[in-house]
Each structure stands twice: as C-alpha cells, then as structure tokens.
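Why does residue order matter? Because the sequence determines the fold. Keep that principle in mind as you read this record.
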Amino acid sequence: MAAQPRLGPEDWLRAGLVALATSGPEALKAESLARALGTTKGSFYWHFENIDAFKSALSEFWLGRAETALKEASETEATAAERLRNLSQSIGSTADEARTEAAFRAWAQFFGSAAEALSRIDAARIVHIRAVLDALGLTNPEFARIVYGAHIGMLTLPGGDGANESARSTLTAALLALQEG
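Structure:
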C-alpha cells in the first residue's frame, strides 16, 4: 500500500475553509477535519498548537487568498473600466467562493481574528473601488461603499441560475454609463 502524502498546514487550512463553507464554524475541530482529510488528529497538532491557533491561521489564510484576488483584479495595465469589471468578478465569482466568503463573514461576527481579517479586506476592496471609480470620474465617495455593499449583499442571495452574475454585470454597466453620460 502506497504511503499517503504528508499533509502540510495549507492542506488543513484549505480543509478548514471547505468545512466552514459547508458546515459552519462548528466543523472547525481537529477531529472532524482529520476525518475529512483521512488522517489522524496528530497531524493537525503537528502544525497547529491548538484549535484557536488553527482558527487564527485560517483567518490569515483566507485574508491572503482574498488579497491575492484583489491584487489580480487590480492589474494596473488594465483600463479603469476593465479593473471595475475584474473586481466585480473577483468577489465570490464561483459558487464555492461565494459560499466561503458568506460563511467567513458570518463567522467573523463571533471570532476576533476573522473579524480583523474581514475588516482589512473590506477596507482594501473599498479603497480599490474608490480609486477605480475616481479614475472613471465618479468621485462621489459614497459610490464605493454602495457598490461594495451590493456585491457583498449578492453573496447572500441565491444565484445558481446566474442571476447574481447578471446583476453584477448590470451594476457595472450602470456605473460605466454614468461615467459616459
């Protein structure tokens, strides 16, 4: 029988995000994560001192992924209109990502390091949206918060039929029309 590859911290963190998105914060336990990964709790404790350390690492892991997506959406060579479209598509762009972000937001109401990570990415996303809207000549400072709030709100709406993607596209088109008019 072939030896199972050794699990690293990222394997546990990815499993944690899946567990959070599918079963909620109650699933963030060493035993249930080990079962999902087909290994023992010993592997978990090799990488994380305790469950609180894991949850803090999970918050930073999620933040890192969100920051990477924002950086990719912020590509400076793109026009402001392209950056707006990219950002629109980067927040909860797949059903799994939308479910994960919504679950993380719910968890952040009760777990401090998740709340801190969420606050940091929210602020960074709003700054980015404000810069893009400013570049489009839409300088009302409230627009960035309204646009971001609409995107975050759509994460909580059912959208399996593509309705959320269509709504995001419509919002982006409306903003671009304001810029042209």
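The radius of gyration is 19 Å.
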